[in-house]
Amino acid sequence: MTTVERTQVFLLPDLGEGLSEAEIVEWRVAVGDVVTVDQSVVEVETAKAVVDVPCPYAGRVVTLHGAAGEVRPVGQPLITIAPLDGGDEPAGHATYREEERAGSGNVLIGYGTGHGTATRRRRRPRLAVAPDPSDTGPNGPTGAAAGVASGDPAPPTAALVISPIVRRLAREHGVDLDTVRGTGPGGVIRRADVEAALTAPAARLAAVPDPQVGSSPLGDGDGDVIVPLTGVRKVIADKLSRSRREIPEVTIWVDVDATGLLETRAAINAATPDAPVSILALLARICLSGLRRFPQLNARVDTEAQRIVQSAGVHLGIAAQTDRGLLVPVLRDAQRLTTAELAAELAATTAAARAGSLPPARLTGGTFTLNNYGVFGVDGSTPIINHPEAALLGVGRIVDKPWVVDGQLAVRKVTQLSLTFDHRVCDGGVAGGFLRHVADCVERPALLIAAV
Strand, helix or coil at 406? Predict the structure, then answer.
């Protein structure tokens, strides 16, 4: 059997619920490199996260299917690996042949493939200035194999850019890449860096106007700014539009005295300074208590089967604003966590979401969402439900306000709670009962103990 016949083709794996494609951000390997089982071979960007993809095969890289900036569909070839000859076996990898025969089998993004070892070193990416798409020379898009950046050093004054999409985005908006600071490995400039430059107060960059549309000059002479509806922003737009089209939503709200909640948090953190608890964690605990009493809100409507599905577990979504847009990472089976565990998991999850390191599986499958929009300095909101969930609790800022306590006027810490719910899953009595329970627990946290 020839080497060609024995090659193994790794297909782009299933990326999670609703994700059918991914954009190649950066290849971690080049043609001719030797890879081991579970080695990360490429970084891809989906509509939900930027993640590394591990390869389940060991051998030598024969083909890279797709260049940086290219969008690949799930199930299509990603990389072709050929087995090594006996003399090519990498030093220090005594188990190479065993790994080559066994493969991996689990190629879910973000979870590895189940055979990783602490001694395996990750290959450092080789960065170079990507050719301009208009370049047709031997070093242009048709020259370098699979569009992989070479190991040649970049000119000292040139920006490190791998993705042609990044170059095109910068060109469309008039962004000078030499003035953009890259946040990728080795200082490579990513799409998020260009988008950040566009939104910077000092940038004020005018886009190239569409000749068919023209531009409407603003008072300061700037032209219209065109922001492509792609990536995360496109997914957000599609999902929110679908929610508004399909869900008959209703919003109810109530002002509450959160003084007792703040005092409870201070007491907990004084007793356990090494494991501090956030207000968000306490609110999550209160939501879980409310959903135990009113499970109708921990549900979704299956329109095709014409039924309402109440979830056995609470998969709690936490709305988090990131540089890539609004994401809703999910804490699965949150009802099983203690308050301290909730606090730790919330902190780790939101940090990972903002860093873009959460796998797609952590961004889907929620059954109820908690949205703390008070961090933006606003009191209230009528949020859109995170489809296909049935309800969302919003929390405004906590501020000093006059409040009547035992017949006397006092200054208290007051916030507004809003509940937006799908009227198909319940009527106002259930929704009002849930919101009132949440409000009572915020005002008198001791009720949480009684509700257990």
Answer: coil
Distance CA 50, CA 353 (A): 10
Q: Please give the full DSSP string across 238-275, using - where no structure is assigned.
A: HHHHHHHHH--EEEEEEEEE-HHHHHHHHHHHHH-TTS
Helix 428-443 vs helix 279-293: angle between axes, to the nearest 10 degrees?
140
Predicted confidence (pLDDT) per residue in 422-435, tens digit = 999 999 999 999 99
Cα(413)–Cα(49) distance, rounded to whole angstroms?
37
The DSSP bridge partners found for residue 241 are: none
Average per-residue pLDDT in the chain?
Answer: 78
Q: Which of 93, 387, 423, 437 is catalytic?
A: 423
Is residue 65 part of the annotated active site? The answer reads no
DSSP one-letter string for 278-340: -HHHHHHHHHHHHHHH-GGGSEEEETTTTEEEE-SS--EEE-EEETTEEE--EETTGGGS-HH
pTM of the model: 0.59
Q: Domains along the chain?
A: 8-102 (2.40.50.100), 232-451 (3.30.559.10)
pLDDT in tens, 249-288: 999 999 999 999 999 999 999 999 999 999 999 999 999 9
